[in-house]
Amino acid sequence: MGNGVQERQAALTQGEVLPRHSSSQSEQGFKQGRSVLNSLLSGAFAGAVAKTAVAPLDRTKIIFQVSSARFSAKEAYRLIYHTYLKDGFFSLWRGNSATMVRVIPYAAIQFCAHEQYKRLLGGYYGFQGKALPPVPRLLAGSLAGTTAAMLTYPLDMVRARMAVTPKEMYSNIMHVFVRISREEGLKTMYRGFTPTILGVVPYAGLSFFTYETLKKLHAEHSGRSQPYSYERLAFGACAGLIGQSASYPLDVVRRRMQTAGVTGHTYSTIGGTMREIVSEEGIVRGLYKGLSMNWVKGPIAVGISFMTFDITQIMLRKMQQLGYMR
User: Fold this and answer.
1) Is 221 helix (H, G, I), strand (E, B) or coil?
2) Residue 214, SS3 per DSSP
3) How confident is the model at residue 212 (pLDDT cuts 50, 70, 90)?
4) Which of 61, 219, 239, 317 has a CA-to-CA distance to 171 between 20 and 30 Å?
5) Closest Cα partner for 47 from 304, 314, 317, 299?
6) Please, what sign has the CA dihedral across residues 112, 215, 305, 242?
7) How much is the pLDDT for 16?
8) In the chain, how long is the greatest CA-to-CA distance?
């Protein structure tokens, strides 16, 4: 009899504990899901704002990257001015709709993936909730960039085609997909994929690594856990400058391969494309064509992107704390 009472008490005790444990798990899962959603929304908004801000410079850079014309600041200005006179002010943003279709999911996935990789690597290395050591910090950025690039690559191909062709050739985003699929085959949608991934690894890795490192050093020296907005912008600019300089030749190769179908070239391999560029245009004037413009455009775009992401994340958390988002 006594044993029966004890067993019943034990069962009741277990029954009381299990719901609390289940409730705790449910709450943890809800917080994790909300964190992922915040990262996705913040990343999407950050990417859209940053890319729209520099779209005319980005389009100009791509046009020079895929042609054999010599690049200079004077020629870039002349191209922008002539485009404005010929096709109007908004023509400077041609291809930006395709950019948005690509960059919104790309930035959302990249920033969200970075937060998740930081959490996973932090748990693995014993730095949960703290700044990661240098190697995992670099790894988290590289993995985030690779994940985003793999999932959104065809949209990057479409954006490059729209940037370098007249509007009569491709009327809209779907038209690009249809024409490429019909005339060049579906495999063309992934032309330039390998140099993209090879370029994303150092670019995303160094960009996130530099930004996170500068924030960590700032916190240690200033005593403030959160930098001001202009400091985030400066940290992001430094991150973009370093990341894009390291991966720029592969960016040129990627653009040449993506637009081969409309420029009359037959770029098919990374090595072959590099050799042809170097033999025709040289190393600096070929593989680094437009880099000086990227030193203007890149830091601005990356700085805006990182700053917007952080500020949006902070705003969303405050809104949730105040009860505006449940």
Assistant:
1) helix
2) helix
3) very high
4) 61
5) 304
6) negative
7) 46
8) 97
Most confident of 30-34, 68-72, 204-208, 261-265: 204-208
The terminus-to-terminus CA distance of the chain in angstroms comes to: 50
In the block, residue with structure tokens 């990249």: 110
Whole-angstrom distance, CA of residue 306 vs CA of residue 240: 10
Whole-angstrom distance, CA of residue 287 vs CA of residue 245: 11
Please, which residues have CB within 8 angstroms of residue 208's CB and are 6 or more apart in sequence? Answer: 114, 137, 138, 140, 141, 144, 145, 239
Distance of alpha carbon 55 from alpha carbon 69, whole angstroms: 21
Under the banding of pLDDT at 50, 70 and 90, the label for residue 309 is very high
Alpha-carbon span 101 to 113, nearest angstrom: 19
Integer Cα distance of 231 and 307 in angstroms: 9
Of 100, 94, 97, the C-alpha closest to 168 is: 94
CA distance 283 to 263: 20
Q: Which amino acid is at 45?
A: F
Question: Which among 230, 231, 229 is positioned nearest to 221, based on CA atoms?
Answer: 231
Task: Please state, in angstroms and rounded to a whole number, the distance separating the CA atoms of residues 82 and 87.
Answer: 8
- Asked if residues 141 and 114 have their Cβ atoms less than 8 Å apart, the reply is yes
Q: Are 214 and 238 in contact (CB under 8 A)?
A: yes
CA 168 → CA 162, 176, 196, 291, distances in Å?
10, 11, 28, 29
